[in-house]
Write a structure and sequence with these properties.
Blueprint (H helix, E strand, L loop, with lengths): L4 E6 L7 H6 L12 E6 L1 H4 L6 H17 L8 E4 L5 H10 L4 H5 L2 H8 L6 H15 L5 E3 L5 H17 L8 E3 L34 H9 L16 H14 L3 H7 L5 H28 L1 H30 L5
Parallel strand pairs: 1-2, 2-3, 4-5
Helix pairs in contact: 3-12, 4-7, 4-13, 7-8, 9-12, 10-11, 10-12
Bound molecules: adenosine-5'-tetraphosphate (AQP).
The site of adenosine-5'-tetraphosphate (AQP) has 22 residues, from helix 1.
GO molecular function, one term: tryptophan-tRNA ligase activity
Subunit structure: Homodimer.
EC number: 6.1.1.2
Length: about 325
């Protein structure tokens, strides 16, 4: 029997943070046996905000290497670069014709990101339509992503249902799969905002590839509060976030993490969190260094991945083109 499809993408819009790791990347390898996993470096999404071309090229290969360092096996999962499979954009165009601008304007990510732009370009508004195309192109059933992507997955479901109703059943309706712990890691400097790789303040995030000293320094500087008690509570968002990070890296519940530090001060909490992060990232960092040096391997993974992805994408796109009334080539 065919395995169900799992699909997820990550933007090469900066070096990846532990938010990207705990919310998404870390959870990918475990799904490979039971599902046909399709993991993508979504470079077309990345250019919805300005990127430096040489840096984008480098970060795209960095990210392929990071997927592999985290345990994604390109012999099993399909690992590829979005711009190598043009069917994504072709389907996105069709989906644009059944997506309301009002709904796109209400997307939280669009509202947040557009505030930071001098001029708002159409690509930023249409980002979720391309994301819907990424997912629907492969008849995806499950999308492992962090909580910040929930609204986009709901939009994807709406678009799929609209297409299926207007034409005839074509797309599977996908579901979000967010981790129980670590689905929303917050900024270390503003624990009310999510940790983001494109944050201007480098103390706000920890990168997967940060050196141990940088990790310790950033956690030491993390914003807490003046309560002085380690309690897992919304009224202490900085402490809550540190407990979430600790619990995710140690594979325990936030409540168990809270118990471990119940009689500690913030200094001891921060030291404990820093050690958990350093230890948790060390094997990934070691594997990454080996893989990243092998450029021929990375190029062949991209090539093979794009071929496998294209084969599946074309099947769906052919169906879609026929249903909307395009004449066959
Ligand atoms: N803070 C977070 N906590 C948990 N999960 C997170 N993700 C992102 N931030 C957190 C998850 O990481 C995956 C890849 O995200 P993306 O690169 O596609 O874009 P994003 O969600 O917009 O991530 P960033 O880091 O905030 O990137 P920029 O700054 O470029 O916009 C997704 O599964 C996401 O849920």
């Amino acid at each position: 029997m065919d395995r169900k499809i799992v699909y997820s993408g990550i933007q090469p819009s900066g070096a990846l943070t532990i938010g990207n790791y705990l919310g998404a990347l870390r959870n990918f390898p475990a799904l490979q046996e039971a599902y046909q996993c399709i993991y993508c470096v979504v470079d077309m999404h990345a250019i919805t905000v300005a990127q430096h071309p040489a840096q984008l090229r480098k970060r795209t290969l960095d990210l392929i290497a990071l997927y592999m360092a985290c345990g994604v096996d390109p012999e099993n999962a399909i690992l590829y670069v979005q711009s190598h499979v043009p069917e994504h954009v072709e389907l996105a165009w069709v989906l644009n014709t059944i997506t309301s601008v009002g709904q796109l304007n209400r997307m939280t990510q669009f509202k947040d990101k557009s505030q930071k732009q001098k001029e708002i370009y159409a690509g930023l508004l249409n980002y979720p339509v391309l994301m819907a195309a990424d997912i629907l192109l492969y008849q995806t059933e499950l999308v492992p992503v962090g909580e910040d992507q929930r609204q986009h997955i709901e939009l994807t479901r709406d678009i799929a249902e609209r297409f299926n109703t207007r034409y005839s059943p074509t797309f599977k309706i996908p579901e979000i799969m967010a981790p129980k712990v670590g689905a929303r890691i917050m900024s270390l400097q503003n624990p009310k905002a999510k940790m983001s790789k494109s944050d201007a303040d480098e103390n706000a995030y920890i990168l997967i590839l940060d050196e141990p000293d940088a990790i310790r320094r950033k956690i030491k500087r993390a914003v807490t509060d003046s309560e002085g008690k380690v309690v897992y509570s919304d009224s202490q968002p900085g402490v809550k976030n540190l407990l979430d990070i600790y619990a995710s890296f140690r594979g325990i519940s936030p409540e168990a993490a809270e118990r471990e530090f119940a009689s500690s001060g913030y200094g001891a909490l921060k030291e404990g969190v820093a050690e958990a992060v350093v230890e948790g990232l060390e094997p990934v960092q070691t594997r990454y260094k080996e893989i990243r040096e092998d450029k021929a391997l990375l190029e062949s993974v991209c090539k093979e991945g794009a071929q496998r992805a294209s084969y599946l994408a074309q099947k769906t796109l052919r169906k879609v083109y026929r249903k909307v009334g395009f004449v066959q080539k």
